[in-house]
Amino acid sequence: MSESSSSVSLQQASVFISYSRGDGREFAHALRQKLEAEGFSIWQDVVSETAGEGWWQNIVEAIEGSAVMLLIFTEGALRSQVCATSGCTRAKSVRRSCLLCRNMAC
Q: What tens digit of pLDDT does each residue of 41-53 get?
């Protein structure tokens, strides 16, 4: 499932990007590239996550290891319990900001 051969470890991640793959993938990818170019470390499931057991625990650990969670705000994310509810609830429970990022051209 890895999109890139270089993945960011949980200890290095400062920004967690949450998005709906159905309608937020391209924007999330472009945003990740821009943030990395500015020196931010990014955790994004397509790059950093491997499929299989423990998927949700890996997401939780990534949120906890990040300074902030960015939710790419799309219709798909609003319909996704993982994107819109569970992820932001987990971020809030460990005192991480969950910022909404509107899906616009970068």
A: 999 877 555 556 6
